[in-house]
Automatic annotation (TrEMBL):
Domain HTH araC/xylS-type: 190-288
Keywords assigned: DNA-binding, Transcription, Transcription regulation
Protein's UniProt keywords contain Protease: no
Biological source species: Paenibacillus ferrarius
PROSITE patterns: HTH_ARAC_FAMILY_2
Gene3D superfamilies: Homeodomain-like
Name under which the protein is recorded: AraC family transcriptional regulator
GO molecular function, one term: DNA-binding transcription factor activity
Domain of life of the source: Bacteria
PANTHER family on file: ARAC-FAMILY TRANSCRIPTIONAL REGULATOR (PTHR43280), HTH-TYPE TRANSCRIPTIONAL REGULATOR EXSA (PTHR43280:SF2)
SMART domains named in the record: HTH_ARAC
Entry keyword Transcription: yes
Length: 301
């Protein structure tokens, strides 16, 4: 199979070239195609329930990786940038068929009011895992398919009812996944500090971080400076360079790998800002460090 790389997209803001149902911020995305391997990045501003009906969808975040296969689903939390790899498998004629449900806090609040679950229910911690999709949920997914053919003709109220129906079906099907969803309600709004700490070493821009925080760029910069007492661009660049220096000094991975591991997108820019901060190029600093270690080990050379 071939491979293609798609540019980073902001979800659910940049929903294009796929079937989409939207109303007042509630979104469902459906995609079905013959697909070779495709890779890319997504910026998640909302919680996402990913359901795979055919094919494979691999999601990576930090040191975690989730492989979601046919008739499986996984919950992805908002405020992060994920890398993905998706493709159809040979035994199903390379068909890739999946849906993404964007779960806004307001929807979860309405669900709790309608369900028989007590609002003060204590939820035990549930790890993010891949869950099976049962027959009831498969029937629900099939009931959505006709709507994607003419999304403009679907009333907002019906989309909301279908989203609530999904949550009730999950309530019946999977207590572990339900606990994960209920935990989302207990979390406070994503803060600037959380977004920055989660994505510091990802190749994201200030615009991306503002988006993940749910703020305009100007508001993000202003609030960032209040918290960190330093302009956002300068603070983030310095933290990335400090981490890069740590990797350069304590590992033998290549300078290109150090660059990519610390949120810089190309080596030339990385080398330029490194030299501006440390006075020498990354390769010169590594050579000096190696020479110093050799001298300590062999003082009589």
């Amino acid at each position: 199979m071939g491979s293609s790389i798609s540019k980073a997209v902001k979800m659910p803001q940049s929903l294009a070239s796929v079937g989409v149902l939207k109303m007042k911020g509630l979104s469902v995305m459906g995609a079905c195609a013959y697909s070779d391997i495709k890779t890319g990045r997504m910026h998640l501003q909302e919680h996402v329930l990913l359901v795979v009906l055919e094919g494979v969808y691999i999601v990576r975040y930090g040191d975690q990786e989730y492989t979601v296969r046919k008739n499986e689903m996984a919950l992805l939390h908002k405020g992060i940038v994920v890398e993905y790899e998706k493709y159809g498998e040979a035994d199903s004629r390379h068909v890739l068929d999946y849906m993404m449900f964007f779960l806004k806090d307001e929807l979860l609040h309405d669900f709790m009011k309608l369900s028989s679950l007590p609002s003060s229910k204590s939820v035990s911690p549930a790890a993010a895992t891949v869950h099976p999709v049962n027959e009831r949920l498969l029937s629900y997914m099939a009931s959505l398919k006709p709507y994607f053919a003419e999304p403009e003709g679907i009333q907002d109220e019906l989309i909301k009812l279908k989203m609530l129906e999904l949550l009730f079906d999950i309530l019946d099907a999977d207590q572990g996944l339900l606990n994960q969803i209920l935990q989302l309600r207990q979390q406070r709004p994503t803060s600037i500090v959380e977004v920055v700490e989660k994505n510091l070493l990802n190749p994201v821009s200030l615009q991306d971080l503002a988006y993940l925080s749910g703020k305009s760029l100007s508001t993000f910069k202003r609030e960032f400076r209040k918290i960190y007492n330093e302009p956002a661009f300068q603070w983030i660049r310095n933290r990335r360079l400090e981490k890069a220096k740590e990797l350069l000094s304590n590992s033998r991975i290549s300078i290109t790998e150090v660059c990519l591991a610390t949120g810089f997108e190309n080596v030339s820019h990385f080398s330029k800002v490194w030299k501006k901060k440390y006075g020498v190029s990354p390769s010169v600093m590594r050579d000096r460090g190696a020479a110093a270690v050799h001298e300590q080990k062999n003082p009589n050379d």
